[in-house]
Amino acid sequence: MKKLAIALTALAAFTAPALAADMAKAPPRAAPIAYAPSWTGFWISGGFGYGMAQYQHSENNIAAPFALVSTGQDAGGKGWLAKVGVGGDYQFAGPYGNWVVGVFADADWSNISGQYGFNTTTVPGAQIAGFNLTGQFKNDYSWAIGGRIGYVALPGLLTYFNGGYTQAHFEGNTFFNTDAPAAPLLTGISLGSHTRNGWFLGGGTEYSVSQLPGLFWKNEVRFSDFGNRTHTLVCTTAVGCGVGNVLTQTSRAYEQKATTELVYRFNWGGPVVAKY
Description:
By secondary structure, the protein is mainly beta. The protein has one domain. It contains 1 helix and 12 strands; from the N terminus they run αββββββββββββ. Strands 2, 3, 4, 5, 6, 7, 8, 9, 10 and 11 form a 10-stranded antiparallel β-sheet that branches. Strands 1-12 form a two-stranded antiparallel sheet. A hairpin with an 8-residue loop joins strand 10 and strand 11. Residues 3-16 and 269-276 have low confidence and may be disordered.
């Protein structure tokens, strides 16, 4: 009996370390789960940006033989803008789950402006011959509606392209005669305020701010073409230019805008999606 007790004691002494080592090993931890937001749902946005414009113009005498006053002149403009938007997106499921499509509308208020001028010395028989005119173009607000298609490149990062219809409003202005010896003088020739219709193409990124659920940071660059427009320049005073229509102006406007915005997603269309 004593021999059996000694044998069992020796066996326990040899096996205890091995059992302790096995017990000390913690079970393997499950791989962490990375959460990515759902891009399905409605959203609102707001931010600011900077814009640059190109204004191409030429002028003709309004009376026969409709002589060309200036041809193919370009003017540049620039300025800041504030922007708001609203839209909705849908993220596909299954093998196409990285693709997102959406529609949106946005508007901005801006001071994108620049100076331009032309000379009327070549106008045959015009009442305003001899003027060297300068004026200002200014885009003070715009709006757009369109769609976009995006790809979720990384969890929480959407890259996209967009396009659609846009309209911009340009303020009216009265031209100055810079040939005045002392200081530029008002000529009474004016161009009324007007709207321009066009199209736009753009692209950007949208990134989830993980510390604040529902909040995203969007950065976008957009190019807009507002097409050709012909306007009548009107003289409003009998001194210098005579009352009535005096010139026609044919112009085309382009704009490039870069904006940064905060986006809040309501995620009404779906919950947060877990990526394993």
